[in-house]
Amino acid sequence: MHFQWYPGHMTKAKRMMQENIKLIDLVIELVDARLPVSSRNPDIDELGKNKARLILLNKADLAEEKWNDAWAEYFKKKGYSVVKVNSKRGGGIKSIQGVIQEACKEKIERDRKRGILNRPVRAMVVGIPNVGKSTFINALAGKACAKTGNKPGVTKGKQWIRLNKNVELLDTPGILWPKFEDQTVGLRLAFIGSIKDEILNTEELGGELIRFLVQSYPGVLQEKYDVSESQDIYACLEEIAKNRHCLVRGSELDMEKAARLLLDDFRNGRIGRITLEFPQDYEETDGE
Ligand code: G4P
């Protein structure tokens, strides 16, 4: 499979983030719980060095719970604070305030020693496009927290959302694009829809998802679409097309439509909670 890549305005976004990061104490990094490593941009470790770090496994509702826990452990071992979150429904949001204080306790202590009391922790949300940054900010800030930017006349400079007396959040999240050298990472990002479908062949992508599911989640396709999994991936896609009446010109099987249906079902959690990558795949390569 061949991926095309459009850098576009990425450089500008990164420059803005480098500027913003100077103003903050804590980086709140959202990753997709279904692929917590592939949905990161490795530059964040360099950009966020010397800052307190919190990783949120967002969309935890779409990933398998036992792997969410395993991934939380994986990142904790590396020194990050970690929370499993479902920003869409508010899951995990309540615990964030406490975790922020904990993650920033060294900074709070440093301030205290210098006689600076009650200076709020300043935080910034970062992550790849579509990982849920805006949804998370809304869930955390709630309706009660008006953005300063909403007030007429207050549009210049940085906009902070005051969460409470202890925490302020920069209202513009930092966008970093995922990085991938190998095809497997690109493929996983395409499964969750992080790489636009238009630059990939939908049918091929659907086929690859079938390959992954048959191997790592045997039985789920059979259960969902009443198809046989003991055949080649395109025969399986054909069966999905047949069983779901994906047809062109009334009779021919529409494989692309079937692939889109499958990808859509997967992305919306209708096939169940599916994790795409596992900590043990990374533990071996860490520290090289
Ligand atoms: P971004 O700012 O990082 O680009 O992401 P954004 O908040 O716009 O969220 C991208 C999509 O992910 C949205 O769906 C949003 O609802 C969904 N989302 C965010 N957090 C979660 C989560 O924890 N769980 C689940 N299941 N979904 C989440 P959308 O399809 O663009 O819109 P809609 O379906 O909400 O209408």
UniProtKB/TrEMBL annotation:
GO terms for cellular component: cytoplasm. It comes from the Bacteria. One of its GO terms (molecular function) is GTP binding. It is found in: Cytoplasm. GTP binds at residues 58-61, 86-87, 130-135, 174. PROSITE patterns: G_CP. GO terms for biological process: translation. PANTHER family: MITOCHONDRIAL RIBOSOME-ASSOCIATED GTPASE 1. Required for a late step of 50S ribosomal subunit assembly. Has GTPase activity. This is Ribosome biogenesis GTPase A.
